[in-house]
Specification:
The protein has 137 residues and is α+β, with helices and mostly antiparallel strands. The chain has two domains: 10-63, no CATH class; 71-137, no CATH class. The protein contains two helices and six strands; from the N terminus they run E-E-E-E-H-E-E-H. Strands 1-4 form a two-stranded antiparallel sheet.
């Protein structure tokens, strides 16, 4: 099927999977869910759809009498407001030498632990977390 990168990343449609709706514990009256990525013209899955790719792999594994264990790596850049910074933001906990670490030196406000607990409350089985070096803003 034509599309995706070959077509210059055209518009997509994301259809929410209402079976995955979960209230966000930190935001009253807001929920989160997973969605299926579709081509708006055809209504069919696009080649870059992670869920569709996973479904294909699961079918192949089942045919081979194997079971998948899936462990996504969730990443983000955490910033704090800073009126003096050119962008209005600065890195959270900018102390050097904190690559792949946890604890108060790398995370003075306990953000990582709160995030892990929030993800667990969403039904994600969190096995660990750390501060990773990155070139964010």
């Amino acid at each position: 099927m034509a599309g995706g990168l070959e077509a210059g990343m055209p518009d997509i449609l994301v259809r929410p999977d209402l079976d995955t709706v979960v209230p966000l514990p930190w935001e009253p009256n807001v929920a989160w869910c997973i969605g299926d990525v579709l081509d708006p013209a055809t209504g069919r899955s696009v080649p870059e759809s992670p869920r569709d790719l996973l479904r294909q792999v699961l079918t192949r594994l089942k045919d081979a009498d194997l079971t998948a264990i899936v462990g996504p790596e969730l990443e983000y850049v955490l910033l704090e407001p800073d009126a003096d910074a050119p962008t209005g933001w600065r890195r959270y906990a900018p102390a050097p030498g904190n690559v792949y670490t946890t604890g108060r030196k790398a995370d003075p406000d306990g953000h990582l632990l709160r995030t892990a607990r929030a993800l667990y409350a969403l039904g994600l089985d969190v096995s660990g977390g750390n501060r990773e070096f990155g070139g964010g803003p």
